[in-house]
């Protein structure tokens, strides 16, 4: 060796290299290389580089020649194959061999990396600095590339595991085909494995490796890549058609594409530009044909199944044949070909499926459509669902309109049945997807607030503010309140149900209420019913009464409204105590119970009706007032006789009956106490009772034509009067002496009868005013809310103000655009706020 | 409300004296509403109806649903009326009626 020092540069290379070259060739051919030879190679390279100025370049050139030569041999071997499978198989065997060696061969030539004579690999990302610094970044890649022996990095686990499996399989294939060479492979890999595991990061970026891969790329790959690709695609195609295939061949081709890349920044460049592209195109072409064919042959419904199955199948296939980075792209392309291109014909089936409640198919369609990125298909389905619920719901309501407009129980139950049906549909077909839940809710809202089945008319104008306002609204809230009343009152319905069933139904009512726009109407009716129950003492369960108040609070009813209800409960308790004290104080008053209530909590608009009480009742009044004055000061009492009621005993020729009656009915009936058999004219009854005309008509009607009883208390002349409006001044009334309570077709001599029916809490006039006061209250609430918002915001544009306003008011009612506008004008007129001088849509709060 | 068949014994005295009365009262549930006997039903201090509890009490009521009834009305010698709660806060600053500026002295208090 020392001898070499004296020699000239060129000689050193010439002398050393031929020996070393043999080792290189052996390595390339995967022949056995002894440990000594391996080490010699290291030394030789080192030596040449050290002593020969141009040694590095010379070695590089020599190496290049050898590699190219080797590759050309391999190429001829591959090119000689005719059949596609054989071509692929040969190529893969050759490539695997070569690629394995590309991991080891560069090791001895590390010296070259430091040499300026050898061009660094493509500028950036060079390994020229300290080798270890790049290792972290490149180990994961290296692990994937080198596969097999190394302990793979966590980050690369998914990709490496698939490669790992296929490499080992490929190794097995290689052994079988190349026969005798097998032992050399394992020897080489054994000897190198220790080195490679520690220096992998360096091998990756080594110029020699790059040289090897680039040469391969240039000499073999470039020439036959089209054939390779084509063959691979043919195999995939055959596989799709269900023919026999050898998946390993495709995998092998893909691997060669991936590993060939010497571009450090984008390892998958070659793979993407050739293999992935071809694969995508082949897939799309295949299914473009197939999908149309399938749809034409088997119809859309079967096609959906086909598309779904194929999407899954292709996902599995992609895992075998493609890099993970391609999965999404492939799925996108498939969705386009299999679904988007057939979107319209698929969607066209949707309404019928919804109509027929085909949850499985809808679910399938939903899953397909959900893959489409822009959500167009899902939106169309939502639209179909919404339309269906609305039209089916309304059709259902309308077909049953005769029953349900009369019967709140049937109405609510029908509505709930409908809701449950569609909720089930959304659950089963659409997995309760939020988008479909929203569509369902919108449709429910439309059904509930629809005014075509029945409606209430809100007044057209309110005189004192000059507001004209007309809008029919759904009667739903009123019927809901009626249904609540039936559940909470002692009725056949509430007796039939268990406590849990009643709770469940009340919850259902609240569920429906959620969809009602005009909740304020519900509140009003609910309060009326509650008032009636508390005054007549007909609550089925006072605990439930208070429960539901809390539930109403929970679902977001306005606090002041709920508090008012709570106050009524309290007040009735206070009043009960007072009644006990009163009855204890004066012993002779055992026929009277008093309820003295807080006008603030109960009275609302209902005005009082004057009535001339029968003397039996009138006598009690001073006693009560005196008693009350002793207990309280500064209070005034007002009698609400239209709320009072009582029980009277009625004796006639036939028997003796207890009648529950209103005070007004009492006033009318007691008129006959002095003249039992007389006929009394309407006019005289009015004089006797001093009841206002509408109230008297109503009361008389309840006595001559009380529903559902065979024999009425009062009879009239002429008998052919069809409604209370037809009573004339001279219509005559007289007591039915043959009156009897009829049970099972037999007249009873004793019995009890309730003639109160629904206690009229409001007078005829106030009922009209009722709706007006709803509107009035809405106006005030709207003004109040506008001011509340403006006070905080100071400046606000119209759109934002309206949005916030609706949000505040939505738990009571939905303010109409027109009303909002009118109230804004009113507030501006009254200087609560003003418009911006420059922007007419900008409002400014005026303190 | 017991069945009337047995009840007839109790009501006999009535029947005996005036046997032929067709309708007799058995029970009357009379309903009345009370309100403060005031001229103006809005408290000039808190602008809330005197029948409702004053603003302050309403706010506290939210925490404690029960236990209102304390927010009574007070009348001054001038016959103006306010929530007692409101007025007792008012007189700490100014011992005059907020409506007529007369010296405030309580005439009576609601109970």
Automatic annotation (TrEMBL), chain A:
Positions with biased composition (Low complexity): 122-161, 175-198
Keyword Ubl conjugation assigned: yes
Record's GO cellular component terms: cullin-RING ubiquitin ligase complex; nucleus
GO aspect biological process, one term: ubiquitin-dependent protein catabolic process
GO molecular function, one term: ubiquitin protein ligase binding
Keywords: Isopeptide bond, Nucleus, Phosphoprotein, Ubl conjugation, Ubl conjugation pathway
Pathway terms, separated by semicolons: Protein modification; protein ubiquitination
Family per similarity comment: Belongs to the cullin family.
Protein name: Cullin-5
Record organism: Drosophila albomicans (Fruit fly)
Organism phylogeny: Eukaryota, Metazoa, Ecdysozoa, Arthropoda, Hexapoda
From TrEMBL, chain B:
Subcellular location: Cytoplasm; Nucleus
Organism: Drosophila albomicans (Fruit fly)
Pathway noted in the entry: Protein modification; protein ubiquitination
Protein name: RING-box protein 2
One Gene Ontology term of the molecular function aspect: ubiquitin protein ligase activity
Keywords: Acetylation, Cytoplasm, Metal-binding, Nucleus, Transferase, Ubl conjugation pathway, Zinc, Zinc-finger
One of the record's GO cellular component terms: cytosol
Top-level division of the source organism's lineage: Eukaryota
Matches recorded under InterPro entries: RING-box_E3_Ubiquitin_Ligase, Znf_RING, Znf_RING/FYVE/PHD, Znf_RING_H2
Primary site of residence: cytoplasm
Annotated GO biological process: intracellular signal transduction; proteasome-mediated ubiquitin-dependent protein catabolic process
Pfam families xrefs: zf-rbx1
UniProt-listed Enzyme Commission number(s): 2.3.2.27, 2.3.2.32
Sequence similarity: Belongs to the RING-box family.
Domain RING-type: 54-101
CDD domains noted in UniProt: RING-H2_RBX2
Catalytic class of the enzyme: transferase
Organismal lineage: Eukaryota, Metazoa, Ecdysozoa, Arthropoda, Hexapoda
Catalytic activity reported: S-ubiquitinyl-[E2 ubiquitin-conjugating enzyme]-L-cysteine + [acceptor protein]-L-lysine = [E2 ubiquitin-conjugating enzyme]-L-cysteine + N(6)-ubiquitinyl-[acceptor protein]-L-lysine; S-[NEDD8-protein]-yl-[E2 NEDD8-conjugating enzyme]-L-cysteine + [cullin]-L-lysine = [E2 NEDD8-conjugating enzyme]-L-cysteine + N(6)-[NEDD8-protein]-yl-[cullin]-L-lysine
Self-association and partners: Catalytic component of multiple cullin-5-RING E3 ubiquitin-protein ligase complexes (ECS complexes, also named CRL5 complexes) composed of CUL5, Elongin BC (ELOB and ELOC), RNF7/RBX2 and a variable SOCS box domain-containing protein as substrate-specific recognition component. Also interacts (with lower preference) with CUL1, CUL2, CUL3, CUL4A and CUL4B; additional evidence is however required to confirm this result in vivo. Interacts with UBE2F. Interacts with CSNK2B, the interaction is not affected by phosphorylation by CK2.
């Amino acid at each position: 060796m020392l001898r070499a020092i004296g020699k000239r540069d060129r000689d050193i290379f010439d002398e050393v290299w031929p020996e070393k070259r043999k080792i290189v060739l052996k390595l390339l051919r995967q022949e056995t290389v002894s440990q000594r030879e391996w080490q010699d190679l290291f030394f030789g390279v080192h030596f040449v580089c050290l002593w020969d100025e141009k040694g590095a370049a010379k070695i590089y050139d020599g190496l290049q020649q050898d590699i190219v030569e080797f590759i050309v041999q391999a190429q001829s071997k591959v090119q000689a194959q005719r059949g596609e499978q054989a071509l692929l198989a040969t190529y893969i065997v050759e490539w695997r061999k070569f690629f394995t060696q590309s991991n080891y061969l560069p090791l001895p030539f590390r010296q070259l990396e430091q040499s300026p004579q050898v061009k660094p690999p493509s500028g950036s990302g060079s390994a020229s600095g300290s080798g270890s610094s790049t290792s972290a970044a490149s180990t994961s890649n290296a692990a994937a590339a080198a596969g097999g022996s190394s302990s793979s990095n966590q980050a690369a686990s998914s990709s490496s595991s698939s490669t790992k499996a296929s490499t080992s399989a490929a190794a097995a294939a290689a052994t079988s085909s190349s026969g005798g060479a097998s032992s050399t492979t394992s020897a080489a890999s054994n000897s190198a494995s220790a080195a490679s595991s520690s220096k992998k990061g360096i091998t990756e970026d080594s110029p020699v490796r790059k040289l090897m891969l680039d040469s391969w790329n240039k000499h073999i790959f470039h020439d036959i890549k089209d054939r390779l690709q084509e063959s691979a695609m043919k195999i995939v195609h055959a596989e799709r058609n269900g023919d026999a295939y050898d998946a390993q061949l495709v995998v092998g081709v893909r691997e060669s594409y991936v590993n060939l890349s010497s571009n450090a920044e984008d390892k998958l460049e070659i793979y993407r530009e050739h293999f992935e592209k071809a694969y995508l195109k082949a897939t799309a072409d295949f299914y473009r044909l197939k999908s149309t064919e399938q749809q034409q042959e088997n119809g859309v419904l079967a096609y959906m199944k086909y598309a779904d199955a194929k999407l899954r199948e292709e996902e599995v296939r992609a895992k075998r044949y493609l890099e993970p980075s391609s999965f999404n792209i492939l799925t996108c392309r498939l969705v386009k070909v299999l679904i988007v291109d057939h979107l319209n014909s698929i969607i066209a089936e949707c309404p019928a499926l919804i109509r027929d409640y085909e949850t499985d198919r809808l679910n399938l369609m939903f899953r397909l459509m959900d893959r489409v990125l822009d959500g167009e298909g899902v939106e169309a389905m939502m639209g179909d669902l919404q339309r269906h619920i609305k039209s089916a719901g309304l059709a259902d309501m309308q077909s049953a309109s005769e029953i349900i407009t009369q019967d709140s129980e049937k109405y609510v139950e029908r509505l709930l049945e409908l809701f449950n049906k569609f909720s089930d549909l959304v659950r089963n077909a659409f997995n309760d997807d939020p988008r479909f839940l929203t569509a369902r809710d919108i449709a429910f809202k439309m059904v509930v607030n629809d005014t075509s089945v029945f409606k209430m008319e809100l007044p057209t104008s309110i005189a004192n503010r000059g507001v004209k306002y007309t809008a029919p609204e759904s009667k739903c809230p009123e019927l809901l309140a009626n249904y609540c009343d039936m559940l909470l009152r002692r009725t056949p319905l509430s007796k039939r149900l268990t406590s849990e069933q009643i709770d469940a139904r009340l919850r259902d009512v609240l569920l429906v209420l959620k969809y009602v726009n005009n909740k304020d109407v519900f509140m009003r009716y609910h309060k009326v019913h509650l008032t009636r129950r508390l005054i007549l003492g007909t609550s089925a369960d006072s605990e439930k009464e208070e429960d539901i108040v809390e539930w109403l609070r929970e679902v977001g009813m306005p606090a002041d409204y709920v508090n008012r209800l709570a106050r009524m409960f309290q007040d009735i308790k206070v009043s009960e105590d007072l009644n006990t004290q009163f009855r204890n104080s004066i012993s002779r008053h055992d026929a009277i119970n008093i309820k003295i209530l807080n006008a603030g909590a109960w009275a609302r608009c209902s005005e009082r009706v004057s009535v001339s009480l029968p003397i039996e009742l009138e006598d009690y009044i001073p006693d009560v007032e005196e008693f009350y004055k002793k207990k309280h000061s500064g209070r005034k009492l007002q009698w609400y006789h239209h709320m009072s009621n009582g029980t009277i005993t009625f004796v006639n020729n036939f028997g003796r009956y207890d009648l529950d009656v209103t005070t007004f009915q009492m006033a009318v009936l007691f008129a006959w106490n002095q003249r039992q058999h007389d006929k009394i004219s309407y006019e005289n009854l009015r004089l006797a009772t001093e009841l206002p005309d509408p109230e008297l008509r109503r009361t008389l009607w309840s006595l001559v034509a009380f529903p559902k009883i065979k024999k009425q208390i009062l009879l009239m002349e002429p008998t052919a009067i069809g409604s209370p409006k037809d009573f004339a001044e001279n219509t005559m009334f007289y007591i039915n002496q043959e009156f009897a309570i009829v049970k099972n077709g037999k007249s009873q001599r004793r019995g009890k009868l309730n003639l109160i029916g629904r206690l009229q809490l409001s007078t005829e006039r106030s009922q009209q005013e009722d709706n007006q006061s709803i509107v009035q209250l809405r106006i005030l609430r709207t003004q109040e809310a506008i001011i509340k918002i403006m006070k905080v915001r100071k400046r606000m544009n119209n759109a934002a103000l309206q949005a916030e306003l609706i949000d505040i008011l939505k738990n009571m009612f939905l303010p109409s655009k027109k009303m909002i506008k009118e109230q804004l004008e009113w507030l501006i007129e009254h200087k609560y706020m003003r418009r911006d001088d420059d922007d007419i849509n900008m409002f400014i709060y005026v303190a | 409300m017991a069945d009337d068949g047995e009840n007839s014994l109790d009501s006999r005295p009535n029947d005996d004296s005036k046997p032929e009365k067709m309708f007799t009262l058995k029970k009357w549930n009379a309903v009345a509403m009370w309100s403060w006997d005031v001229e103006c039903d809005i408290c000039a201090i808190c602008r809330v109806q005197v029948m409702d509890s004053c603003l302050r009490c309403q706010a506290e009521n939210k925490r404690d649903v029960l236990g209102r009834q304390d927010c009574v009305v007070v009348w001054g010698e001038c016959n103006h009326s306010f929530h007692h709660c409101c007025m007792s806060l008012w007189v700490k600053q100014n011992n005059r009626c907020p409506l007529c500026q007369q010296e405030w002295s309580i005439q009576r208090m609601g109970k």
